[in-house]
Amino acid sequence: MIETKHLLFSYGTLQLEKVQIEIYGRVLKGERDRLIGYKIEKLKISDPAVLAKSQLEYHPIAVKSTKENDFIEGMLFEITNTELEDTDKYEVGEYHRILETFESGRKAWVYVAKNKTI
Questions:
Q1: pTM
Q2: Is residue 90 one of the residues assigned to a domain?
Q3: In a domain, 84, yes or no
Q4: What is the pLDDT of residue 118?
Q5: What residue numbers bound the domain in which 59 lies?
Q6: Residue 52: its H or E element
Q7: Fewer CB atoms inside 10 A, N or C side of the chain?
């Protein structure tokens, strides 16, 4: 089976090599980019499996902003279908995955807060 490639934007724990190795079994290669129109908030994590991987009680969460000049810096990584499914399992219920366009003009998946704008 041929794996489809996806772009995934990370602004938090998915940039950590330890987390990448735990989830994907490899270190991801990426390029810096920006997500325009979003801000970062903190989310307290209680899922033991996620806490074990990240070793961080609070994770950043992207929230849609009403201010056009807000942005989040992060990394665009190329991953496979299987790795995207693995990422879905890692992210807790307060996040949902959407397709967005980034400052570079590229489209990528990103995990953002469900139904929240600031």
A1: 0.84
A2: no
A3: no
A4: 55
A5: 5-74+101-117
A6: helix 48-54
A7: N
